[in-house]
Design brief:
- The complex is a heterodimer of chains A (about 375) and B (about 350).
- In chain A, helix 4 (about 105-130) runs antiparallel to helix 14 (about 360-370) and helix 5 (about 135-155) packs antiparallel against helix 6 (about 180-200).
- Chain A is globular.
- In chain A, about 50% of the residues are buried.
- The model of chain A is unreliable at about 1-15 (pLDDT under 50).
- Chain A has 15 helices and six strands.
- By secondary structure, chain A is an alpha+beta fold.
- Chain A has two domains: about 5-50, no CATH class; about 60-380, Cytochrome-c3 Hydrogenase, chain B (Orthogonal Bundle).
- In chain A, the strands form two sheets. A three-stranded antiparallel β-sheet of chain A has the order 1-2-3. A three-stranded antiparallel β-sheet of chain A has the order 4-5-6.
- With about 350 residues, chain B is mostly helical.
- Chain B has one domain (about 65-345).
- Helices cover about 65% and strands about 5% of the residues of chain B.
- In chain B, helix 2 packs across helix 9 (about 240-265) and helix 4 (about 115-140) packs antiparallel against helix 5 (about 140-175).
- The chains are: A alpha+beta (about 375), B mainly alpha (about 350).
- The interface between A and B is medium-sized, with 31 and 27 residues.
């Protein structure tokens, strides 16, 4: 690994000279219940051992005792910042198992909602990154926009945070009528909030000092550790499942995949800022296509009341805001899945946490943790 | 009235005044930050939430005082007062107005015009550091110790540039007394600029201001408490009124630093181009000079709030780098140039 040379190797005999600092699971900067046991020399981190499992609820095991439809609300509790992406990923996996494709109008509704969720997720991340680096104000500008997005979710399916949107075979409702008036206004306000955040942070000298070159990670290492999503793109790899293995109707949209160069905190931050703009573009295109569809176009594919997929297995991955989110489902022909395995993006990234923070300072550890967006819900499952 | 009675009144007045500023500042901080962040802020207790500091005070007083089992008891209790009291005491030498004539007696609006006023301020600032360090150390918690260590290194490092910036002022005015410095800032130079410290020592002012932010533990220099890294740093283990003293002492400190800034660089109670004593009665002049001083102080207090909610925080090594690699060399150069100019002009 590239960062190995940075670390000062110490034997057990040296332990007395260093301080082991236990960060979390109850700590203001540990998002959710994460715990990192660090060994520090002054403020420099010699080793950081992440400990997971404080939010383990056995979601995958629970899935084996629930029917396919009953499992949907549990997926909300994975990455609760963008629950809709989890819902759709699960639905797509089951639909793949069933061998059905949902009607185009439903696909567009899903796309629009997922991209809104992506904006909401990135807004939370950028805001929290600011908070953890001491800039509280941009957080509020962004979180207000997130609330506006939640308003649309609420109109569509009644829930704000844990959405449980859609169903296997389609979505339950078309876009709310008010979306038509709301979206153009919201698009402007999201852009304005991003612009204000950009002004406050991006070229701020302190912000640049705190983020540029911090936790830099090389492309090769990132690929070896299984990074996906913005974390991988920050390292320079142009990989986006929406582009590379299109699902829903992503191959019909025109959007860019921003990439970084150094894989440091600044690149991760910038990529998320740029991706929000791309998501706005996708929503615009998807909404234009949606408006061309007839009002009575179907939203649901006919699926039996009790879903019994044929015996077999399916894996479907989507590009969630954090990276590749995949659901592996094995069916034995009964109404309950034989096995569900979730591939959350941050689990793979969090494995490399020690490599990321070794040799950096405690403040960088906090910045690193915020910038990789570890969500305990999907990490521990 | 005897002299000692007047002195007592002045002491009580300045004490209450410092307290009042600190109390109102907690409210201003919350309301102003809310204003900047599209929120409302506290608005329930009293008109515009003005009674919120009172409610907070009652809450802090009535809370259980918890002491960690392994804390050094005496030092743990010594920390908060040691932090808060010097901040109050520094007000003693601040000239908060010119003079007022009451009952035929001319009263100088300053508790005591000691001729080493400004060394006294520096010394008290240095004592305040012990409050943080002792508090952090005595808590026997790793976060507190890290906070205490950061406080030691940061505050001691930034006292040097602050001292260097202040020395240039001493060279310029040739006195250590704050009152005399303010008096020397009346009038204009080069025909149009007010005789203020900021125009004569712009670089010194910038160095002083940056160092003042570091001394006051405010963002971007709030590393000793740094809530996202060290929970709350040196006062992590404190609760109840001990915590209150730390939080409160910080605002008193802000008030002191703002007052010193105004006295040294912004002409204290004087107005540029206008001599208030010419057209105001003796009593009105006293009050007016105090108001002018207060308005200037209020501006700097607001500046503290403004900066806090705008910029992110430094990292520890960057903070030290700024102090030792930028501010101290600049301060030395500034001191040298000033000394040379003063020598040449005399």
């Amino acid at each position: 690994m590239a960062t190995e040379t940075v670390c000062i190797t110490t034997g057990p005999a040296d332990v007395g000279d260093y301080v082991s600092l236990n960060i979390g699971p109850i700590h203001p900067a540990m998002h959710g219940t994460l715990r990192v046991i660090t060994r520090t020399d002054g403020e420099t981190i010699l080793s950081a051992e992440p400990e997971i499992g404080y939010l383990h609820r056995g979601v995958e095991k629970l899935g084996e005792n629930f029917t396919y439809k009953q499992f949907l609300p549990l997926t909300d509790r994975l990455n609760y910042c963008s629950a809709i992406c989890n819902n759709v990923a699960y639905e797509l996996a089951v639909e793949k198992l069933l061998g059905i494709e949902v009607p185009p109008k439903a696909q567009l509704v899903r796309t629009i909602m997922m991209e809104l969720a992506r904006i909401a997720d990135h807004e939370v991340l950028v805001g929290i990154l600011g908070v953890d680096l001491g800039a509280l104000t941009p957080f509020f500008y962004l979180i207000i926009q997130r609330e506006e997005i939640y308003e649309i979710f609420e109109w569509h399916h009644g829930a704000r945070l844990t959405n449980s949107m859609g169903a296997i075979g389609g979505v339950e409702a078309p876009l709310p009528d008010r979306f038509h008036q709301k979206w153009p206004k919201m698009r402007d306000s999201i852009r304005r909030a991003n612009d204000e955040t950009d002004k406050l942070l991006t070229h701020n000298r302190i912000w640049m000092d705190r983020t540029i070159g911090v936790n830099a990670f090389c492309e090769e290492d990132a690929l070896n550790w299984g990074f996906t999503g913005p974390m991988l793109r920050a390292c320079g790899t142009r990989r986006d499942i929406r582009k590379d293995e299109p699902y829903l109707m992503y191959n019909e949209f025109d959007f860019e995949v921003p990439t970084g160069k150094h894989g440091d905190v600044f690149d991760r931050y910038m990529i998320r800022m740029l991706e929000m703009e791309e998501s706005i573009k996708i929503i615009d295109q998807a909404y234009a296509m949606y408006q061309e569809m007839p009002d009575d176009a179907p939203l649901m594919k006919k699926v039996p009341k009790i879903i019994k997929p044929p015996a077999g297995q399916a894996y479907h991955a989507i590009e969630s805001p954090n990276g590749e989110l995949g659901f592996f489902i094995k069916s034995d022909g009964s109404d309950k899945p034989y096995r569900i395995k979730i591939r959350p993006p941050c689990y793979m990234i969090y494995q490399a946490f020690e490599e990321l923070v070794k040799g950096e300072m405690i403040s960088d550890l906090i910045a690193c943790l915020s910038s990789i967006n570890v969500i305990a819900g999907e990490l521990d499952r | 009235m005897a002299d000692w009675q007047i002195d007592l009144i002045k002491v009580v007045f300045i004490w209450v005044w410092a307290l009042l500023i600190a109390v109102v500042m907690t409210w201003v901080e919350r309301r102003a930050s809310a204003m900047m962040q599209d929120r409302l802020g506290p608005n329930r207790a009293g008109p515009f939430g003005l009674l919120q500091p009172l409610a907070d005070g009652i809450k802090l007083f009535t809370k259980e005082d918890i002491m960690p089992e392994k804390a050094r008891k005496i030092l743990f209790l010594l920390g908060p007062p040691l932090f808060a009291l010097p901040a109050f005491s520094a007000y003693a030498v601040v000239p908060f107005g010119d003079k007022i004539v009451l009952g035929g007696k001319e009263i100088i609006l300053q508790v005591s015009d000691v001729n080493i006023g400004f060394l006294y301020v520096l010394a008290l600032g240095a004592i305040g550091v012990y409050g943080m360090v002792i508090g952090g150390w005595a808590s026997n918690s790793k976060y507190s110790i890290l906070g205490g260590l950061r406080a030691t290194a940061q505050l001691i490092s930034y006292e040097v540039p602050m001292g260097l910036a202040l020395l240039t002022i001493v060279l310029l005015y040739g006195t250590f007394s704050l009152r005399e410095m303010v008096l020397l800032q009346q009038g204009t130079f080069l025909g149009f600029l007010p005789n203020w410290g900021i125009f004569k020592q712009p670089l010194g002012f910038i160095i002083f201001l940056v160092a003042a932010y570091a001394e006051a533990n405010r963002v971007p220099f709030d590393l000793p408490e740094c809530e996202s890294e060290l929970v709350t740093g040196y006062h992590t283990e404190y609760g109840s009124m001990n915590l209150g003293l730390y939080l409160f002492g910080e605002y008193v400190n802000l008030g002191t630093l703002a007052a010193i800034t105004v006295s040294l660089f912004f002409g204290g109670w004087t107005l540029p181009y206008v001599d208030m004593s010419k057209f105001l009665g003796p009593v009105a002049y006293g009050v007016a000079s105090f108001m002018v001083f207060f308005i200037k102080q209020a501006f700097f207090l607001f500046l503290f709030v403004w900066v806090r909610w705008t910029v992110p925080r430094f990292r520890y090594d960057q903070l030290m780098g700024l102090g030792w690699k930028a501010l101290i060399p600049l301060g030395l150069v500034n001191l040298f140039v000033t000394a040379l100019l003063v020598q040449l002009t005399i």
